[in-house]
Amino acid sequence: MSSKAIAAAVRRVEDILRRRPSRALHDDAPATARWEGGTRVVASHANGTRVATDMPSELGGSGDCVTPGWVFRAGVASCAATTIAMRAAAAGIELDALAVDVHSKSDTRGLLGMDDEEGRRVNAGPCEMRLEVRISARGHPDDALRRLVEASMACSPMPDAVRNALPIALRVDVG
Hints:
The chain is built from 5 helices and 5 strands; from the N terminus they run αβββαβαβαα. It has 175 residues and is α+β, with helices and mostly antiparallel strands. It has a domain at 3-21 and 67-163: 2-Layer Sandwich (GMP Synthetase, Chain A, domain 3). Helix 1 (3-19) packs across helix 2 and helix 2 packs across helix 4 (142-153).
């Protein structure tokens, strides 16, 4: 879809939501993950998209698929890039290039339920995350593109969920 078409779509949705704010809140498409044995899991979307994950061989997996952590980072990177592209289009900025890398650091002891040297539980999630954005658009100053990226990150759903530590409700059905 062209930048102009994206901008028009964004304007249409904004107009609708200004008139009817209640339409903004919606259920997101669920992701369903099914265990396939060992540490291999396949996540699926209702549209048929499937993503297989497995752990590295050091943790008992085959090592032939991406890990769930990589899928998480890929989701954050894709969400950030999508938001930047949408905001650029809405601002009339034709991007020449855009790439987002997401790096994180994790302590494997958390995954294994281990404590640190002082006996405190190690966090199972990443202990730090860094987004690196490469962007260019002819005719637009570097500062304007930096502001575009910063404004985009303020409203990009997945980076926002990470930054604000989204609470998770857990329901367990046994049997």
